[in-house]
Amino acid sequence: VQQVFKQLFYMINAVALNNLLLRKDVCSWSTGMQLRFNISQMEEWLRGKNLQQSGAAQTLEPLIQAAQLLQLKKKTSEDAEAICSLCTSLTMQQIVKILNLYTPVNEFEERVTVAFIRDIQTHLQERSDPPQLLLDFKHMFPVLFPFNPSSITMDSIHLPASLNLEFLNKV
């Protein structure tokens, strides 16, 4: 059950983040607020179902950071440093793309300046991020089956001769 929810939450994360990276109309402060609220509801649901150890919440980390990026101030060099230290699960390409797509919804918000985006790129140059922008929503986590040891001891097993396993020797 835990593995199923980890996979499901990863797919939710990938599809939502990819939509955020492809659609200018959703890159705003208010969308960041909505995302963060919805993610907190999902995390609370996981806790209520006692699934917090499944790793499902950790798969949402890129989406959480993208939501926070939409909500942060984006003006000074200190803001750029804060963004770089906060957005560790996002690649430089993803951060820059979100900042380029950021669209103010009301008159109190401002567009992200080109100088600020260059400042971000300068701070993130030493990162060795993969070159991909979008997440692979078809990624599958390996299924792990727990090992349950048998109560039957090996020396009590009788192998029938019809199996033709003469090459096996009891030790």
Automatic annotation (TrEMBL):
InterPro entries, alphabetized: Dilute_dom (IPR002710), Vascular_dev_regulator (IPR052072)
Signal peptide: none
Taxonomic superkingdom: Eukaryota
Annotated Dilute domain residues: 1-126
Listed GO MF terms: GTPase binding
Coiled-coil ranges (or none): none
Official protein name in the record: MYO5B protein
Organism: Nyctibius bracteatus (Rufous potoo)
Encoding gene (name): Myo5b_2
